[in-house]
Amino acid sequence: MKKKSKNTNLKNNKIKPIPNFKNEDEERDFWDTHDATDYFDMEHPIKLDLSKLKPTTETISLRLPAYLLMRIKEIANSRDVPYQSLMKIFLAERVERELQAKISAK
């Protein structure tokens, strides 16, 4: 007995084109209401190189005590990196540590 394919579009070779989106919200809404198997050939995936993509960033305002900012700048200077980059590294490391501790506690 022949197994039925979940994606009837593959059987008919009618993969729908993905529309162009104005922004991420519009794209998110689209995928919340549409089946991805109608838009992709799941039988023949393609390899994508996403290594050059940058994560989405947001600018924030952060008030720090002057002594703390001075210490961060000193450490950054000794490592020859911009202090903002060092702060991102410190924050990412701490967040990862907190998440790992949370997982370990379960």
From TrEMBL:
InterPro entries: CopG_antitoxin (IPR022148). It comes from the Bacteria. Residues 7-21 have a biased composition (Low complexity). Residues 1-21 are annotated as: Disordered. This is CopG antitoxin of type II toxin-antitoxin system. It comes from Candidatus Woesebacteria bacterium GW2011_GWB1_39_10b.
